[in-house]
Amino acid sequence: MHASRASQRRGYRSELRLTSAPGPLAFAPMALDTLEKLRAAVRDVPDFPKKGIVFKDITPVLSDPVLFHASIDLFLDRCRGRKIDKIVGIDARGFLFGSAVAYELGVGFVPIRKRGKLPFQTEIASYSLEYGEAEMEMHIDAIDAGEQVVLVDDLLATGGTSAAAAVLIRKAGGQLLEAQFLIELEFLHGRKQLEPTPVISFLKY
Ligand code: AMP
């Protein structure tokens, strides 16, 4: 029973492997099928949190054990074999993906939170969202100078949030290797805000 479960799991994981070093065309054909399943699971919620916004709801991905695993493996495949000291996740859905990735890589996890949530001394960066204005904070001792960092979030929209996170990471002296997103709304050109940081996303709309 255990052996067959373990081999099923191994088989499943192997279909998600990248064929080569991380790059935009590095997905094996089997992984494309998994990407389609992930894409199908992301639920569009019109007019949330305000009229005109189509909210990409990733909770159906989280609640499906196979898809949740697959989504974490996408991030992991980008990270394995690189020298990474910290994964930084953005409040709040970036915590769900980022902390699992950090746990599996055996590296530290750093939360960047909306203003007023972190208890210790912070650095603050302002940004504008697809649907509003806000400020993000990071603890001043969360990243040591010279540490190599990967930024993780569920979705890249206008890029304001992750650009603010990049400012906080660099202010602390961290080297931002890459920003990784499960979903990218390409029509909003958010990756421009992050230049020259390399940006990778797995599901593009
Ligand atoms: P932005 O700063 O515009 O790139 O917005 C990215 C942040 O806002 C991410 O943390 C997302 O979780 C959230 N977000 C923005 N737009 C959407 C959307 N259409 N669907 C789901 N989340 C969104």
Output mean pLDDT: 88
Query: How are the strands ordered across the major sheet?
Result: 5-6-4-3-7-8-9
Low-pLDDT residue spans: 1-27
What is the 3D shape?
globular
- Terminal CA distance: 40 Å
State the share of residues found in helices, binned by percent.
25-40%
Give the helix/strand class.
Answer: alpha/beta
How many helices does DSSP assign? 7
Strand content bin:
25-35%
Give the tally of β-strands.
9
H/E element order: HHEEHHEHEEEEHEHE
Based on CA atoms alone, the radius of gyration comes out at 17 Å
Largest sheet, if any? 7 strands, mixed
Hetero groups: adenosine monophosphate
What can be said about this structure in brief?
The protein has seven helices and nine strands, in the order H-H-E-E-H-H-E-H-E-E-E-E-H-E-H-E. It is α/β, with parallel strands linked by helices and about 200 residues long. The strands form two sheets. A seven-stranded mixed β-sheet has the order 5-6-4-3-7-8-9, sandwiched between helices.
Secondary-structure blueprint of this entry?
Elements (H helix, E strand, L loop, with lengths): L1 H13 L14 H13 L1 E4 L7 E4 L1 H5 L1 H15 L6 E5 L2 H13 L2 E7 L7 E8 L2 E8 L8 E9 L3 H12 L3 E10 L6 H4 L4 E6 L1
Helix pairs in contact: 4-5
Bound molecules: adenosine monophosphate (AMP).
The site of adenosine monophosphate has 19 residues, from β2, β7 and α6.
Protein described:
- This protein is α/β, with parallel strands linked by helices and 205 residues long.
- It has 7 helices and 9 strands, in the order ααββααβαββββαβαβ.
- α4 (65-79) packs across α5.
- The termini are far apart.
- The relative contact order is 0.13.
- Mean pLDDT is 88; it is low at 1-27.
- Adenosine monophosphate (AMP) is lined by residues 53-56, 90, 93, 129-130, 153-162, 190.
